[in-house]
Amino acid sequence: MLDGVFTPAQASRGERTFSDVCAACHDTGEFSGGRFRISWVGRPVGELFETISTLMPEADPGSLSPAEYAAIVAYLLQVNNYPAGDTDLPTNVRALGQLEIVSPPAQ
Ligand code: HEC
Questions:
Q1: Which mutation among 50, 54, 56, 76 tests ligand 1's pocket best, with the greatest number of atoms within 8 A of CB?
Q2: What is the position in ligand 1's atom list of the atom closest to the CA of 64?
Q3: pLDDT tens by residue, 51-68
Q4: Ligand 1 closest atom vs CA 57
Q5: How far apart are CA 85 and CA 3, in angstroms?
Q6: What's the gap in Å between 56 CA and the centre of ligand 1?
Q7: Which of 15, 16, 48, 98 has its CA at a distance of 20 to 30 angstroms from the CA of residue 28?
Q8: Quick one: pLDDT at residue 24?
């Protein structure tokens, strides 16, 4: 299950950061649908968080705060149709490591 692991407000913050910082090089189509499934289903949310927070943005990796990276991950989960809930996605890598990315709900 990957239900209610982020809030709508967190995903909106992530959307803003994504368009400010990431959209120059990426569009969300790269991180949704079949491409998302092939890359991420079966892996923990923590790996997605660590990948983004240690490698991106390409010119200045690690330059955002943990909260900003978590919000971007929340946004990408929202783009993939996972339902939001009442609690923000944490920034704690160990907690994120407990959350397995299951197959996304149908769009
Ligand atoms: C200057 C261009 C640039 C910016 C800005 C940028 N990226 Fe990337 N990103 C790349 C390139 C090039 C790759 C593919 C090469 C690689 O994996 O290092 C990539 C790869 C990725 C991957 C796949 C990594 C993997 O191993 O599967 C993710 C996820 C990602 N970027 C997310 C982001 C996010 C989120 C942001 C904003 C915080 C961002 N990128 C900003 C250029 C960029």
A1: 56
A2: 38
A3: 999 999 999 999 999 999
A4: 41
A5: 7
A6: 5
A7: 98
A8: 97
CATH superfamily of 8-97: Cytochrome c-like domain (1.10.760.10)
pTM higher than 0.70, yes or no? yes
What is the atom index within ligand 1 of the atom nearest the CA of 31? 29
Q: Token match 């690690």: residue?
A: 62
The encoded tokens of residue 87 equal 């609690």
Paired tokens of 65: 């705060």
- What is the Å distance from ligand 1's center to 34 Cα? 18
**17-39 per-position pLDDT tens digit:** 999 999 999 999 999 999 999 99
Tell the residue nearest (CA) to atom 11 of ligand 1: 58
Rounded Cα distance between 33 and 93, Å, is: 25
